[in-house]
Amino acid sequence: MNRYLIPLGCFVLLVVLFGIGLRHDPSVVPSPLIGQPVPAFELPTLHDPATTVTDANLRGEVSLINVWASWCVACRYEHPLLVRLAREQQVPIYGLNYKDIRGDATGWLQNRGDPYRLSLFDESGRVGIDFGVYGVPETFIIDRHGVIRFKHIGPIREETLSEEILPLLARLAAGAPGPG
Amino acid sequence: MGRRAAITLFAIALALPPVRADDVPLQFDDPGLQSRYTELIAELRCLVCQNQSLADSHAPLAQDLREQVHERIRGGQSDEQIIEFLVARYGDFVLYRPPLRFATAALWFGPLLFLLAAAYILVHLSRRRAARPAPLSDAERERLRDLMDPP
Q1: Is the peptide bond before A137 cis (omega within 30 degrees of 0)?
Q2: Residue A115's beta-bridge partner residues?
């Protein structure tokens, strides 16, 4: 009986390790910004270059920041969900228009609908770097204290909405305690 | 051109180190700063093309991050400060050599531990196989004699 214990033990260990390891998507980089305050920024809005928005303007309510661009193909998949989310929920969605051309971006929103309270125009992508953006689209949830509570990389799907985003929004709206 | 010449040129081209993928070449006047820059961008991972360093990747983000590194070296920041800047935004994954922390201990020591465990098991198994069988009892020796040399 003892002879089989060691190989069996190794096998079980490997099954566990592979079970954990193979379920991970190695291209998804976990963000160190979860639990951190929104990085300081100052950007013009997409539709009105004369208006400037800073991180301070986000404080006081729970919000979403969605990084998007007219050149981003995957953004087209999630955009209808965002339009629907903006219509059904009370949460404001801020767009971070990343490394785009103004005309292309405004045209894109005109064609597909604009779910954003406003879009920030990050032409150089410098603010994107501060947010740790590497794969557009990306979506952040910010609590009312201006702390990043959640980041999703890639287009939002129905499961993301129903299993992660909506529950977290409900918890934050109910006044969940600060990051711990 | 002659085939020999063509093959020679091709062989030389293969032997040359790969050209850095700077879409806009970033230079320093000071060779000391230049070598710091070259070393840093070789040690930092491109988050988009995750198997390439910042030095090799053509991705726009890689160009942006190279510019960041260039800017900060010019601004007098140390290597540690620049690395800290990127790790704060992108996490440890941006480094090719992750720092030794409790969370990364499994990554650093795991392979060695597996190797040691495998070596131990192999030694243990071969030792057992080499162990001598128990000596025969008198009755068994009798039986052996009868079997080998039937009366």
Answers
A1: yes
A2: none
Residue B144, strand partner residues:
none
Q: What angle do CA A64, A67, A72 make, to 5 degrees?
A: 140
Pairwise CB contact (< 8 Å): B90 & A27? no
Interface contact B120, partner A, CB < 8 A:
no
ipTM of the complex: 0.82
> What's the pLDDT at B126?
80
DSSP A164: I
Say whether pLDDT at B19 is over 80: no
Concatenated DSSP letters of B47-114: SSSTTSBTTT---HHHHHHHHHHHHHHHTT--HHHHHHHHHHHH-GGGBSS----TTTHHHHHHHHHH
Q: How wide is the angle at C-alpha A59 spanned by C-alphas A58 and A61, nearest 5°?
A: 90
User: Which comes out higher in pLDDT, residue A46 or B123?
Assistant: A46
Q: What's at B134, amino acid-wise?
A: A
CA distance B40 to chain A (A): 18
C-alpha dihedral sign at B142, B145, B148, B149? negative
> pTM higher than 0.80 for the full model?
no
Please answer whether residues A126 and A99 qualify as being in contact, where contact means their C-beta atoms are separated by less than 8 angstroms. no
**b/e B110-141 (16+ beta carbons within 10 angstroms → b):** eeeeeeeeeeeeeeeeeeeeeeeeeeeeeeee
- Interface mutation target, options B50, B51, B90, chain A, most CBs of A under 10 Å: B90
Contact between residue A163 and residue A171 where contact means Cβ atoms under 8 Å apart: no
